[in-house]
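Researcher: Please translate sequence to structure tokens.
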Amino acid sequence: MERKIITTADGSKTIHLPELNEHYHSKHGAINEAKHVFIKSGFDYILSKNKLSALDIMEIGFGTGLNAFITFLEAEKINLPIHYVGVEAYPVALSEAKLMNYPEVLAVKEKQQVFDTMHQSLWELPVEITSNFKLFKRKQFFADIQDKSRFDLIYFDAFGARVQPELWTIEIFRKMYEALRFKGVLVTYAAKGSVRRAMQEVGFVVERLPGPPGKREMLRATKVES
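Model: Translation complete:
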């Protein structure tokens, strides 16, 4: 399948799959989307609601590593320990990752080695990016996830339901619900009614929130039962 590197509206790069007409990030701004959906509505939100001395995060769709990198930068500001699990069935090639310009656009060129290490590190082996940021990349189909009450926060960043509807089902969201701890939060750029109903079916309390640039709404789901 053809894969093109494109520049999004905020100057950051992403990958476009012309055959599916699907992008790894919003063409309206990859970094803007990540900051709005996953940092502001997820990372910042859960820290404002819970007194946590560390944060366990699972990302569904590790992709280009953008969400992991921005999370690292945000956690570094407040000296917060992070255990980050990135799940990906089809990893991005290292040659593609090298074309992503996130450290440059975020004005943190001195952190280029951190971003590189995130991609150069081996799958299925834990790596200490810094003393406060531990990364574990799992090459795994989302349907095979079996974690139980392990995470505080899930970034659900799978390809859209239009091209991969099997990733947005009751069965998948039940796995997400089970993987979260009590009061754990899942955030996603998606806002379809069918996605919201699937979340609610498994027990999530779901909020519609203003979306990132180019999208009217997004969803945040909270696990309210232990």
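Researcher: Any highlights?
Model: The two ends are 43 Å apart (CA to CA).
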